[in-house]
Amino acid sequence: MTLSTFLFLLAGVMLNAGAQLLLKAGVRPIGAISVEAATLLATSARLLMQWPILAGLACYVLSVGLWLVALSRVDVSLAYPMLSLGYVVNAVAAYWLFGEALGPLRCAGIAIILLGVFVVARS
Hints:
Layout: H1 3-27, H2 40-48, H3 51-71, H4 76-82, H5 85-98, H6 104-122
Helix pairs in contact: 1-3, 1-5, 5-6
C-alpha cells in the first residue's frame, strides 16, 4: 500500500469518526429523541438547525469520496478493517469531549482492535 493510499484511508476514517462526534454534539442539546409521527417533522427540523449535525453530515459525504478513492486502490478486505480505527478515535474523543466512560474493559477492547488492525495491515 502506498503512502497516498494509506492517507486516503486514514482521512476517510478520521472524517467518519469526526462525523459521529459532531452528530453526538448536535443531539446533546435536544436530548433523547422520541420517534413519534406527531413530532417527527418538528424534531427533524430542530435537528437540521444544529450546525454540528450539518457539519457531521458534510464529513460523511467527504469521507465517502475519500473512501471511494481508497477502495479503487486496495482490496476491500484490507480497507474495511481500517474503519475499526474509528472506534478507537471515537472512544478516546468521547471520553475527552463528552465525559463518556472509558473503563478497563473498553480499554482492553481498544487494544484488541488496534492489534487486529495491525495484523490485517501486515498481511
